[in-house]
Design goal:
By secondary structure, this protein is α+β, with helices and mostly antiparallel strands. It has helices at residues 2-12, 30-45, 47-62; strands at 26-27, 67-68, 71-73, 87-92, 95-100, 104-110, 115-121, 125-130, 138-140, 156-157, 163-168, 171-184, 187-196, 199-207, 211-218, 227-233, 238-245, 256-264. It comes from Prevotella histicola JCM 15637 = DNF00424.
Length: 267
């Protein structure tokens, strides 16, 4: 009975932040992966594991994460989301820091859509704004990603079929991106998957392309374990940024997606 109760809580606590109800592409498979891993761990560890997982899910439900990035937003009403209680992850040289959010909200005319857009800018090189974090402000342990100049969102491109290997806090990691091509009635679509040490953490389907990149890898929640920020764009002109935290991972997981922000740009 307690296992059934936990799965019910897990379903209702699937935490996403989207600035629009529109879902041009599908985010698939995440809850199925959680259930498979969770069942395995429950069988191994029993009642204490169920209780711990239930408490973690309820905590996330009571304090959901929300994120933004510096961007010209067509869909998001940023002035109703961010305030002076938020924190920012920013880069200075090759190092990363957490600080109270410093930002400017404005309006600019977008000639493509024929309307004004909300702009969120900063004097710093901000990677991410987050509504709350359990860690202290200051320098953040991170991986130097050797990002190529003029990269979209200043992120490390995760080319499908390749593996990114690195070591963090004494542990070795492999981040592999795969894609599959599907053809139906003469039309092609793609599925994009990211594996962390062989376990699936990202799966998006029905995409125009697989254009994933890694914006940050390091510890931003203060538990000395790996956290990740991805750009998971799958449509032309799509912004899709997601935050994965180790402190919110359930048994059998290394990280768990806690929030995303979705918007669009271009034609």
């Amino acid at each position: 009975m307690r296992i059934k109760t936990f799965f019910f809580l897990l379903d209702v606590c699937f935490l996403l932040l989207s600035c629009t109800g529109k879902r041009p592409v599908e985010v698939a498979g995440e809850r199925a992966v959680l259930r498979k891993d969770t069942v395995s761990e429950v069988q191994k560890k029993g009642k204490d594991t169920i209780k711990g997982m239930s408490e973690k899910v309820l905590e996330m439900d009571n304090h959901p994460y929300k994120i933004l990035i510096p961007f010209d937003y067509r869909q998001c009403k940023v002035d109703t989301l961010i305030d002076d209680t938020w924190v920012e992850l920013y880069r200075k040289g090759h190092k990363y820091y957490l600080s109270k959010a410093q930002y400017t909200i404005g309006k600019e005319w977008d000639g493509i859509i024929g309307d004004s857009v909300s702009t969120l800018t900063s004097k710093r090189d901000v990677i991410l704004y987050v509504n709350h974090l359990p860690s202290k402000m200051g320098k953040v342990n991170s991986i130097d990603l050797h990002i190529a100049p003029n990269s979209f969102l200043d992120a490390f491109y995760l080319k499908p079929g390749t593996t990114l290997r690195f070591t963090f806090e004494g542990k070795h990691y492999e981040l592999k991106t795969n894609e599959k091509v599907f053809t139906k009635h003469g039309n092609q679509s793609y599925e994009g998957v990211i594996l962390l040490n062989g376990k699936q953490i990202v799966r998006r389907t029905n995409l125009d392309k697989v254009d994933f990149s890694l914006m940050f890898a390091g510890d931003i929640d203060g538990d000395r374990k790996l956290d990740l920020v991805f750009n998971l764009s799958g449509e032309f002109g799509e912004l899709y940024v997601a935050l994965y935290l180790s402190s919110c991972a359930l048994p059998g997981q290394q990280v768990r997606k806690v929030s995303e922000v979705v918007d669009d740009y271009g034609c």
